[in-house]
Amino acid sequence: MLGTALHLEDLEVNHADQFAIVGRSVEARGAERVHRVSVEPFRPTDYERADLWVEPKNYAIREVRYYRAGSESPSRTIIAPPEEMVPFPGHLLPSHWVIEGTEKDVTTDVFFRRIRVAPDVPDELFSVRTLEMSSKLPAFSK
Fold this sequence. Notes:
Blueprint: E1 19-29, E2 32-41, E3 49-54, E4 61-67, E5 76-79, E6 85-88, E7 91-94, E8 96-101, E9 106-111, H1 128-132
Antiparallel strand pairs: 1-2, 2-3, 3-4, 4-5, 5-8, 6-7, 8-9
């Protein structure tokens, strides 16, 4: 998307079995301890590796750093401010992302409203392919 650090891949539904865990550690973030999990996607994507910082008490993903092939510096970072997490049964979801695009030196704020968990919507609707072809979305075909 032009002029933004948001990528269509960010809106895609992802599951743990789509990634290989290549590293784990526990780190201090202020007074809290968080898990750092390094993953590599099984299918081709815009990045080679991602590091996720996850809260152990509720599994909320607080930060994700994406790395391009061969790079030690992240190309993008997504931060979910903890004070803007929304509780749902069994977990927390972000209502705000701060996306820092280091390659383009741009920061994008994304706000989520009217969040629903497990709506009756097929995962394929939020694939990069479908999002790029907006004419296939029901809202645009009317």
